[in-house]
Amino acid sequence: MRIFVAGFHHETNTFAPSVADWDAFKAGAGYPAYARGPVMLEQMGGGSLAIAGFVREARARGWTLVPSVWAGAMPSNRITADAFARIRREMLADLREALLQGLDGILLDLHGAAVAEGADDAEGELLQCLRAVTGPALPIVASLDLHANVTRRMLAHASAMTAYRTYPHVDMIATGERAARMLARRLLPGAPARHSHARRVPFLLPLNAQCTLLEPAASVIAQLERLEDEADLELSFAMGFSAADFAECGPVLFGHGADAAALQRAVETLHEEVCARRREWSTDLLAPAEAVARALSLAGPGRGPVIIADTQDNPGAGGDANTTGMLHALRAAGAGHRLAGSVALGLLCDPESAAAACAAGVGARLPLSLGRAVATWDGTLTDPPLHGEARVLAVHDGTLPLHGPMTAGATARLGPCACVELDGIRVLLASAKAQMLDLDLFRFLGIEPGAMKLLVVKSSVHFRAAFAPIASHILVAKAPGPMPADPGDLPWRHLDPATAPRP
């Protein structure tokens, strides 16, 4: 079997302050850098993304993989028109060339929540373009992120799709393997036709409430897997990325199966369960000062650290990891002194301060202006930079291997980085934005997370995979930032009127 393989990942927050241009895809930042051809398989085959699962399963089956494009950029506002056009053009050119040698199928590692300038449904458009080249018969199977905004065009032009089932996403490789097995079923001689069915949930889900370690998401996924096994179905719950202002933003339950009636019953059963538990799809959020006060009351000797998630500046959801609301709250409470230097925040994306600290060197003291004020969706500015004299504790070139539950096998490339201490608070500075989802992202700058008493992480949920095992308590703070913890706060203009902006 000759299988065409490609990947395209971007999670678009149309209310975020910065866009994804071609340079963002070339750099990759939290993703591997843009790659095309055989180097793509060499780069992606040993990582933790779904495409690595494709490679593993395909090689076990003796398939020949025909590599095209890997393109991934950190979440932000829209993908620029020229970047999307280039990715699409190169993928389509590779597909046309591959078809000349013969192809049996296509595997795509997609995010599912990309919005480009001029293309609100970027994955739907990409799939439609691919289908126009292949014709209707060639099977196209795609893996999706759990936060995909699944559209009618995506469902129409893909033969099948399957979404991650965990958030934090610790099953990306397993999802890639599942997608390859789904393709294999469609390649069997005489394989029966498989039907598709989908139902849209009539309300958006806040990002924090989508955590599959918590209820109600945990029970819905467990029920999905039971129904799938009982009737030999392929079911998914794409919970949506609730910050993309276009008509089809939102959660979708969908699946594929040879028994159309059983498939419809299963999807409808899951839809009823999600809607019946509508009021449970929410998370307790704390103001910054309240979160710090509660953390100080919970922290103590012999306990693991209290973790505060700075969810509205999550760089994994469109934030730039540079806001200072939590830093100001820590300083105002005297947290660094009260907990004797056992307080740390990371990662704060501040290339200028990181460069200044690296130039000064370990042990130096220098005045720094940390972070910046950024405009949010309603035009207001976040907290101002935090000024003060800082001591440089550690510096690093920012390239490091990762070993966490989500990231094992990946390499972070963050540019010059430094750990500085200001008023007893240790701040990890990076030159590129990256979500704090791995213990190594503290350790590389000399901080052992388990030995700290209070950690502030710029993340929403992904941090839980690595940090929950060491935490005594986890709190979620709603400091001002570009990624709304409550999608009902956003000034929606294009969302389908049938979809409520909050549960």
How would you sum up the global shape?
globular
> What is the CATH topology descriptor of the largest domain?
Rossmann fold
Number of domains: 2
Rg of Cα set: 23 Å
Strand order of the largest sheet: 12-13-16-17-11-18-10-19
**Could you say which structural class the secondary elements and strand pairing correspond to?**
alpha/beta
* Unreliable stretches covering 5 or more consecutive residues: none
Q: Helix share of residues? A: 25-40%
CATH architecture of the largest domain: 3-Layer(aba) Sandwich
The beta-strand count equals: 19
Major sheet, described briefly?
8 strands, mixed
Distance between the termini: 45 Å
Number of helices: 15
Hey, roughly how much beta strand do the residues contain?
15-25%
Oligomeric description of these chains: single chain
Mean pLDDT across the residues is: 96
- CATH level-4 homologous superfamily of the largest domain: Response regulator
CATH class of the largest domain: Alpha Beta
Can you give me a brief rundown of this structure?
The protein is α/β, with parallel strands linked by helices.
Structure description:
The model has no long low-confidence stretch (mean pLDDT 96). The chain has an eight-stranded mixed β-sheet. It has two domains: 2-280, 3-Layer(aba) Sandwich (Rossmann fold), CATH 3.40.50; 288-484, no CATH class. Helix content is 31%, strand content 21%. Helix 5 links the parallel strand 4 (105-110) and strand 5. Helix 3 packs across helix 7 and helix 8 runs antiparallel to helix 9. It has 15 helices and 19 strands. The chain is an alpha/beta fold and 503 residues long. The protein is globular. The chain has helices at 22-27, 38-44, 50-60, 81-101, 122-134, 152-157, 172-187, 217-231, 260-276, 288-298, 325-332, 335-338, 351-360, 440-443, 463-467; strands at 2-9, 35-36, 64-72, 105-110, 140-144, 160-163, 195-200, 234-238, 252-257, 306-310, 343-349, 365-370, 386-396, 399-401, 411-413, 417-422, 425-430, 454-457, 473-477.
